[in-house]
Specification:
Oligomer: single chain
Strand content: 15-25%
Mean pLDDT: 87
CATH topology of the largest domain: Endonuclease, Chain A
Structural class: alpha/beta
Length: 258
């Protein structure tokens, strides 16, 4: 049987603080009754459903614990998680077959979490992008709350790149207000090779959360492939990555794509 307090702590680690506060307030309003539908909605769509199921099961097996205690535990856990985050927390992100030794967090879920957390800016980097409707949907919501979106992708062959799929054209039609970047031809030529490509895959939000991953922005990477990454909350690394990507623009290494 899962320990209720441990499940609450785990949910606080993997869920945005605002969501946890909503969950806690929802539980308080239930006045002791467990309403799965209302609590499920409070968590939002991007939280690990298996973990939520585990939470409900642990709650059912602890009938003497009151709703107010559970709500207080959520609020305490998220504030503890925030303190740890400010010191720099790293989560392993594994998509693929499970061994039971490493928790599975789907790449899609983690990317949506990062995008949902952004308040001012997001920078995404991928070799290719196609068929990622959930990511596009999350980015649209971020844009609607005033978040600036920058995306660096490999150019298509028609524009001097190495892929036959024009990711920029596809995403531009879906996210017309975003800024799309490519590795500039002059910078590529300065390295004296014809085989350069944008092979990095990462995302950073507000200089405070970064996701470094093996996964492209593709259906295969989100749903079928074996992928590995790390999610970094707080500390110096996310800010350093954000500044580095922005410096690539300032120095002309990357430029706006067509």
């Amino acid at each position: 049987m899962a320990d209720l307090w441990m499940v609450i702590a785990e949910l606080a680690v993997v869920t945005h603080a605002d969501r946890i506060d909503i969950v806690a307030d929802t539980i308080l309003k239930l006045d002791g009754a467990m309403n799965r539908d209302r609590i499920q909605r409070a968590f939002g769509p991007n939280v690990d459903q298996a973990l939520i199921t585990e939470f409900f099961s642990a709650w059912e097996n602890a009938p003497t614990i009151k709703a107010a205690e559970i709500a207080s535990a959520f609020k305490t856990a998220i504030r503890t998680a925030s303190i740890m985050e400010s010191r720099g927390a790293i989560d392993l992100v594994w998509t693929g077959p499970s061994t039971g030794l490493v928790p599975i967090r789907h790449t899609e879920q983690v990317l949506c979490e990062l995008i949902d957390s952004a308040m001012t800016r997001i920078f995404l980097v991928s070799f290719v992008a196609y068929g990622v409707d959930s990511i596009v949907g999350a980015l649209r919501k971020a844009i609607s709350r005033g978040v600036g979106i920058s995306i660096l992708l490999e150019s298509s062959q028609a524009h001097g790149g190495r892929i036959d799929h024009d990711s920029i054209a596809v995403l531009k039609s879906a996210l017309p207000t975003s800024r799309f970047y490519v590795w500039s031809e002059s910078s590529k030529q300065a390295t004296d090779t014809q085989r350069n490509s944008v092979h990095a895959k990462c995302a950073v939000a507000d200089g405070s959360m970064a996701f470094i991953t093996s996964a492209n922005l593709s259906v295969a990477a989100m749903e079928r492939n074996m992928e590995l990454g790390i999610l970094i909350r707080g500390g110096a690394a996310p800010e350093s990555l954000q500044r580095h990507l922005e410096a690539l623009i300032t120095t002309g290494v990357i430029e706006l794509g067509v």
